[in-house]
Amino acid sequence: MFVIAVFFCDNAPELQEEHSMESYRYLLDIALILLGTKLFGIFSKKLRMPAVVGALVAGIVLGPAMLNLVEPNTIITALSELGVIVIMFSAGLETSITDLRRAGFKAFIIALLGVIVPLIVGYIIGMFYNTGPEAWLENLFIGVIFTATSVGITVETLKEMHCMATESGNTILAAAVIDDVLGIICLTLVTGMADSSVNIGVVMLKILGFLVFAVVVGLVMHRFFAWWFAHDNNNGLQRYSIVSFAFALIMAWASEEFFGVADITGAFVAGLIISGTRQCSYVTRRINTMSYMLISPIFFASIGLKLEPFQFSWGLIELIVVLCIGAVLTKIIGCGGGALLCKYNPTQSLRIGCGMISRGEVALIVANKGMALGLLSEFFVTPILLCVVFTTVITPVFLKLVYKHDDNDPDFLTRKEAHEQKLRIKEVMENPMTDQDAPATNV
Predict the structure, then answer these.
(1) Residue 441 is assigned to a structural domain of this protein
(2) Which distant-in-sequence residues (6+ apart) come within 8 Å of 443 by Cβ?
(3) Which residues cross the membrane (predicted)?
(4) Most CB within 10 Å of its CB: which of 63, 75, 208, 343?
């Protein structure tokens, strides 16, 4: 079927001229993406890797960088933006508010170090390749791009491996939301230096306003959904998922439109509001079905589609390698180091650091903003795009490796089991000599 679709794609121009149906090309593009992501996803599963990796590779293979069968267009872009909103809404539905609240302060420390370390390292890398009296602002902007975290890839990978409900998984989600807010502040400060029309004080007030808005709406709407799900005698299951998804879209729109906060943050908050209610599991299943059938494959493939062919040079290759290594290590060191400071064990800290590596669409949005303001020159565009694709592809691979666990892994123990394990360890530390080790006494 995939081969047939490719044949029609190769002959699409002739077919379009013959039938004057150029506007319907997007249907073939979507079909190719769905078939390609599924085919490469199966192949990646055969290699014991998450299917997300295959979907990302499918976008690279189908896009301008290789076969050039599918090109980014307005429909694919819109669906990919909707895709990450759906993924984050689903993540909110499957997140425990109690666990998220427990990780609050720790997540802030992790996110803060996960922004500071990449910002500094990105600026230093820029200094080596971009010199001049006015280059410091562009170098600083490279650091801002480094601070970005796209949690959509991580969420999908953790869900696929059934690791979303782990302590480290909840911490990654909380830290990513805070990282998004801190990233917006950094972006605003740097763009404000280049664009006098940006009022930094107003932006900070909007971010504070969003936090108040999220709390107020959360308290009101959580009670509404809990009451509705509990008292609906008609058992209107279909309307539950429709109204819930509409609410997520409204929250995503409001956060971006009125407060300048990323739409994915609003969608995640919407999921948190509905989580824990009576029909939450039903809504989650319906949303996941929609995501799996259409939205998510397009989102993952769209990242690979953004990669353009380019001419290699040794200097360019060196810059790409340095950016990729720096992007990976800064998040592992920054976020992982922050997790260690917050008393997570080394394994959990490594998982949290790896979960924050992916830059994804967030970094691309930041880069586009920089190009529009003249803060990012053409010399850095291709290397940064390749770095974004690399971090997005490598994150599921790393997560697959670091989430191998045994029976005593604290991330996979229930709260009761974890407490019992701590008591046993404490008992052993206080009484290291067991009955078997005790010396025999004469009767």
Answers:
(1) no
(2) none
(3) 24-43, 50-69, 75-93, 105-128, 140-158, 170-194, 200-225, 237-254, 260-277, 289-307, 319-342, 379-403
(4) 63
The per-residue pLDDT string of the chain (443 residues; one tens digit each, 9 = 90 and over) reads 555 555 445 555 444 444 444 578 889 999 999 999 999 989 887 877 777 778 878 988 998 888 889 988 888 888 988 988 888 788 788 777 776 677 678 899 999 999 999 999 999 999 998 877 678 888 998 999 999 887 777 887 888 888 887 888 888 988 887 887 787 778 767 776 666 666 777 878 888 888 899 999 999 999 999 898 888 766 667 888 999 999 999 999 998 888 877 787 788 889 989 988 888 888 988 998 888 888 888 988 887 887 777 777 888 899 999 999 999 999 999 999 999 999 899 999 999 999 999 887 678 767 767 776 778 887 888 888 888 888 988 998 899 889 876 666 777 765 455 555 555 545 555 565 444 444 444 44
Contact 389, 56 (CB under 8 A): yes
Please check whether residue 375 lies inside any domain of the structure: yes
- The alpha carbon torsion through 428, 432, 436, 442 (nearest 10 deg) reads -140
Please report whether residue 22 resides in a domain: no
Q: Hey, what are 123's tokens?
A: 């600026």
The domain that holds 90 is classified in CATH as: 1.20.1530.20
Q: Is residue 8 part of a domain?
A: no
Q: How many structural domains is the chain composed of?
A: 1
Q: Which residues contact 104 (CB under 8 A, 6 or more apart)?
A: 174
